Amino acid sequence: MTQYRPDPDSLAAHSAPNWWRDAKLGVMITWGLYSVPAFAPRGIDVVKLLAERPDDALKLTPYAEWYENSLKFADGPTAAQHQERFGDAPYTAFRNTFEAGLANWSAEPLMDFIAGIGARYVVPVTKHHDSYCLWPTALANPLRGADWHAPRDLVSEMAAAARAKNMRFGVYYSAGLDWTLNPEPMANLGEMRNALPSGALARKMMLDHYRELIAATDPDILWNDIGYPDADDLWDLLAEYYNDREDRLINDRFQLPTPSHLAMSDPEERIAYNRGVAAALRESGFAFAPDVPAVFDHRTPEYATSSEMGDVAWETVRGVGHSFGYKANEIDADFLSGDELVAMFLRIVGHGGNLLINIGPRGDGSIPDEQAGPLSALGAFLKTNGQAIYGSRPDDVLCRLTISGTDVLPVRVGRQRFALVAGPLPEHVRLVGWGGVEGLSILDGPALACRREGDDLVVDVPPTLAGSAAAILEIAA
């Protein structure tokens, strides 16, 4: 076993373990006090909002888990609906409702559902930006006192229930943003970047919290968000984490303070930064991924349907709708349908990625039907077709193709080869460069009529396949 030193050169030699690359599907759980009001503006996804309204995007964020920050803008939609529903009650008042709901909550039904849709790992939020911890931390919150945490160890309960279903377990933790350390409202990314926690208090909070979580749950994944306040503490933490068990991994959101962060104290620098991010998002086709940190095992593009990441391990993270936290005001049009979710998943897997799909439970911990429906459809698809998904890698011998808007993506699982078809196909299909293929058949179904024409393979598509929202073909070669 490799021994890692507490320095970035040594730690960067670690890579994502094969179990994670094989898993393909994980579930994030975003659940906390913000799940009680369950509101954010609707109608636009966050990446387009950042591109189109860079100066006040966070004021209007569709993410319901940002409720406390959004509430600070008196002229914003969150404050208006809050006044109408809750009057002058502070954000902290949602704690009473959330904790009362725990009396009837158990982790087992949630993990039963997640395992049932075919997920191989689960990553619940343990502390979001509001600093409310879902475990009884021994550390007092600097603004809200010694008991700013759940009355039970919900994190350990979820870990035990997940592992009872043979799923790997990770922890989401927001170290780069904490509204009890920096309570000023944040309207844009520049202001958020300026709010990266710093100083001895922040260092102690983040390091102690991570060590508590690691000791209590032995997590397979550290899924950090936004950044981390101190390099020396981080290198020590990661060396301990990797040396204790090498088949663990961390994501790409442990960004450290840089001169760019310090420059964000200048309003003009913040404006320039916001506009630069907006331009980059428009140029990339609205694909968002965090800045690359010194040490990471996998990249985490957000709300990206596919990503050309090369050989680096990566996962798309997103909700079924436009929010991670439960948002009661979303309508059917805001959610992926089951067919859309399956097709998106195939595009991600066909490009070598994983999908970390989010569940945002209600305040009482139950899963809304509008999320459960599409996720169940994905689970049904995996139950039938999982042999072509789990453990797969892109097949670089055959070309990836897009035919009438549908991606056809070749993959390998050991010696078996498959084509992931992410949408309906026309009646006749020319697979360019696939002339070396002996034949195609529907997975566990009949062979398709094929003929070679030069270097290409021409396929007659039966009506059952032509009308399918997604399909798996087995490749004979």
Automatic annotation (TrEMBL):
UniProt cross-references to Pfam families, sorted A to Z: Alpha_L_fucos
**Could you tell me which InterPro entries the record lists for this protein?**
FUC_metazoa-typ, GH, Glyco_hydro_29, Glyco_hydro_29_N
GO biological-process terms attached to the record: fucose metabolic process; glycoside catabolic process
Enzyme Commission number(s): 3.2.1.51
- Superkingdom is Bacteria
Key words, A-Z:
Glycosidase, Hydrolase, Signal
Tell me the ranges covered by the Glycoside hydrolase family 29 N-terminal domain, including all copies.
2-387
Q: List, alphabetically, the GO terms of the cellular component aspect.
A: lysosome
Example GO molecular function: alpha-L-fucosidase activity
Q: What class of enzyme is it?
A: hydrolase
Similarity-based family: Belongs to the glycosyl hydrolase 29 family.
What does the protein in this record do?
Alpha-L-fucosidase is responsible for hydrolyzing the alpha-1,6-linked fucose joined to the reducing-end N-acetylglucosamine of the carbohydrate moieties of glycoproteins.
What is the name of the protein in this document?
alpha-L-fucosidase
